[in-house]
Design brief:
This protein is α/β, with parallel strands linked by helices. The chain has a single domain, classed as Metal-dependent hydrolases (TIM Barrel). It is 35% helix and 14% strand. The chain has an eight-stranded parallel sheet with strand order 1-2-3-4-5-6-7-8. Helix 7 runs parallel beside helix 8 (213-223). The mean pLDDT is 95.
């Protein structure tokens, strides 16, 4: 069983469902196209994170796709801590077929403190509904860590290794793994797991990206494979690696044993979200 812990599918930018911004992603990456990519590469399913860059807090396209392919996608919706109705939104999302979690964004741009009242409300409500919370805190790990410590009863899923990742090849940092020591320290928080998503975008070598394995080995040692969720972050990673290039290094490397690979590429994700794909 292989589960991609983070993908973003979306329709073309049209008046019917306009994009809120136009990132450097493919002009279309529909649910149908994603399933075709799954079938080509032998991937059973994925956690469909509704694309905040394109749709903001509107997860209606994700819902449409999951309704069409209920065995291939589970759903995570971004929620707005500033929305007066956010508690009702979370309660309604809990009733949505296929919904397995919510997402908050605590990068530097929103400028939120760990004591933000809106975040407090969201995270308490997530506990009440037994939702894990995906947290994007790359570039802002200190505040992300403080938030995780402030809410020990909340189950957190740290997006994208907690490490800032490039959208284009020329945007790679000179030391892409500079924040790794902070990520290793974060492993002491037992209410958190981590997505090993977008890892290939941090490579400074050509495909199959051999330089990712030494830093990842340190991460696996600190977190344990049962708390590490492999993923591609397709389509955000589009300009740096294609979908197949984000999959195959993990399937073919000799740096993972078969049991480690099985846990990393599916088992840990299924356990964390309480969901397993069912191919028709």
């Amino acid at each position: 069983m292989i589960i991609d812990s983070q993908i973003h599918a979306y329709e073309a930018n049209t008046p019917k469902r306009p994009w809120r911004s136009v990132p450097n992603w493919p002009p279309s990456a529909s649910g149908e196209e994603q399933v075709a990519a799954f079938d080509k590469l032998g991937i059973d399913g994925a956690i469909f994170i509704s694309a905040f860059s394109i749709y903001g807090y509107d997860a209606s396209y994700a819902v449409e796709v999951q309704r069409k392919y209920p065995g291939r996608f589970a759903l995570v919706k971004p929620v707005d801590p500033d929305d007066p109705r956010v508690l009702e939104t979370i309660a309604e999302w809990k009733k949505q077929p296929g919904a397995v979690g919510i997402r908050v964004i605590t990068t530097k741009e929103p400028g939120r403190n760990p004591s933000d009242k809106g975040l407090d409300r969201v995270l308490r409500e997530a506990v009440r509904h037994d939702f894990p919370v995906n947290i994007l805190c790359w570039g802002n790990l200190e505040r992300g860590t403080a938030l995780i410590d402030r809410h020990p009863d909340t189950r957190f899923i740290i997006d994208h290794l907690g490490i800032q990742q490039p959208r284009t090849p020329d945007a790679r940092a000179p030391q892409p793994w500079a924040d790794l020591p902070k990520v290793l320290d974060l492993a002491r928080r037992k209410n958190a797991v981590i997505k090993v998503s977008g890892a290939c975008t941090l490579s400074q070598k050509p495909y199959p990206f051999p330089d990712i394995w030494d830093p990842l080995a340190r991460l696996f040692d600190a977190w344990g494979f049962e708390r590490c969720l492999w993923g591609t972050d397709w389509t955000r990673a589009f300009a740096v690696v294609n979908y197949e290039q984000a999959v195959e290094p993990f399937r073919k490397t000799d740096r993972l044993s078969d049991p480690e690979r099985a846990m990393l590429m599916g088992g840990a994700c299924a356990k964390t979200y309480g969901w397993s794909p069912k191919r028709a």
